[in-house]
Structures are given as C-alpha cells and as structure tokens.
Amino acid sequence: MKIGFIGLGAMGHPMAKRLLKAGHALVVYNRTATKADDLVAQGAVVGATPAAVAHDVDIVFSMLLDDAATQDATFGQNGIAAGLSPHAVHVCCSTISLAQARRLRDGHAERGQAYVSASVLGRPPAAEAGELFVMAAGQADVLDRLEPVLQCFGPKIFRVGDDPVQANLVKLSLNFMIYSTIEQMAEVFALNEKAGTDPHTIFEIMTGSFYNAPVHKNYGKLMVDQEYDHPGAPVTLGLKDVGMFMSAGGDYGVPLPYASVVRDRLLSAISAGDAERDFVVIQERVRQESGLKQDSKK
C-alpha cells in the first residue's frame, strides 16, 4: 500500500519506520527535512509539502506536536486537505484538543474527505517495537480498511466509536490516568522514603504484587532511578495534555478536581526549572514538600 506520513518527531519517526518495515511504500514530510534521512536510505520518498505527500496515496498519517501544527499541516496552504485524493483517508494520530479534533472532523467532512482519528498510547520505545495501543474512531468501513495498517504500530486496535473526536477524548483521558498514577506513586515513594524504606523496595513490592501494569512498571522504574534527563515526553507536554483534559471536562460539564492537583504539580516542576525533563520529575516536587534531599543528578 502507498502511505504518506507527516511529522517525524519522537513518535512519528518510529511509527513511519514500522510502516517501511511492513513493506509499504512510504512518502514522508517533516519541517526539518534531515529527520527523514535514514528513512530515505531505507526506501522512503520525501514529499515537498503535506499536500504533495497526500497526493496519490491510499492513507496519509499525521503525528504532530500540537493543535497549531496539526491545523496548519492539514488545512494550511499546501496542507493535507489540498492534496488528499478522493479515495484516500487522513488518519490523525496526534494528541490534540477536542476543539482541534472537531475542526479536523468537520473540515474534512465539508470537503467530502475521509477522516479517522487513531490516537496511540505508549512511549517512543513502544513505537520502535510496534507495541503501541491504538484507539481509533471513524466510519466503520474506513476503519475496516485501515485496521491491517494500524496493526503495524501495535497488535491491539480499540474501536472507540464512529465520531473521530471520541478517540481524542479517550487519549486525553488515559494520558491523565498516567499523570495521576505518577502522582500517586510519588506520594507513596516519598512517604516510605521518609520512614527509611528505599523506594526501590517499594517498587519491587508494588510490581511484584497487585500493581504490575505497564504504567507502574515503566514509569515507576524511571522514578525510583531518578531518570529524568532523557525524556520520552517533557513536563511541558504533560501540562498541555492535562490542560486539554480539563477543557474537555468543561465541554461536557464534568468536574475533574484531581486534574487540578496534577496540573499544579506540573506547573511547580516548570517553575523549578524542570520544563524539558521527563514528566516523572514531578516526583521531585513531592520529595521537596516532604523535606527529602533533592535529585542529585540535576
């Protein structure tokens, strides 16, 4: 199948590589063109613009940083919508606000174009390994056509509904659960550390008993090892996600009081100079409030 891919950042690049590995013909675009060099060496072709990438492909994926980048790459001059073939579909994998999700859905619908949201859950190593979880929403017949390709990113595809916005809300919701779980673990680690128990011991007990989900194992290990400086995602990205989750609560009239706790913790991390460190560094704000010695690696 001929596939386009827009956005070769920390997540987009390994996802594009998975498509190449599966044998698909790939056309890519990234504002920093050099990020495509290794993909070109493996057989990918670089498009001059998002519109050029979208022309004459069966599917065009986008995986971009935020609302503004997504809107520009889709509906801006030489954007995806300008070049999308009548038989093709745009699949957005970005973590975006519900307002932007609606703009994508409605903008493509006005143009008579097929559009699906396929949000992904997982960090860059999972993208490299093809172990992402995909949450897709859109027309059932379009999802049927996409599912074999989506399985390049991970074996488990969750169909959320026929409105693409539903997948975006699920993604924001599950991201919030990651941040809130990190807050819980940080409080538990700090309390037991203050009582003299090594956080590594708590981590071993947690993950060797009831609390052995990937979110506990993966993020918990980063926390007890104080691995903050090779971010899979920085604090700034976490703050963006939680802000969008809180806005969604406003859209639907659902109070989200715990989200305020997580947002404030992320704001404290930014104020402490940790904006570009991995978002598990919010642990250090809990430790600081507990009177514990701070991260020695900083």
Distance between the termini: 47 Å
The total count of strands amounts to 8
Proportion of helical residues? 40-55%
Note the run of SSEs as H and E: EHEHEHEHHEHEHEHEHHHHHH
Mean pLDDT: 96
Query: Which sequence of strands runs across the widest sheet?
Result: 3-2-1-4-5-6-7-8
The dominant shape is elongated
- By helix and strand content, what is the structural category? alpha/beta
Residue ranges: pLDDT <50 for 5 or more in a row?
A: none
| Total helical segments | 14
What characterizes the major β-sheet? 8 strands, mixed
What is the CA-based Rg, rounded?
20 Å
Strand content: 5-15%
How does the SSE layout of this entry go?
Layout: E1 2-6, H1 12-21, E2 25-29, H2 37-41, E3 45-46, H3 50-54, E4 59-62, H4 67-75, H5 80-83, E5 89-92, H6 98-110, E6 114-121, H7 124-129, E7 133-137, H8 140-150, E8 156-161, H9 164-194, H10 199-207, H11 214-224, H12 235-252, H13 257-271, H14 282-289
Parallel strand pairs: 1-2, 1-4, 2-3, 4-5, 5-6, 7-8
Antiparallel strand pairs: 6-7
Helix pairs in contact: 4-6, 6-9, 9-11, 9-12, 9-13, 9-14, 10-11, 12-13, 13-14
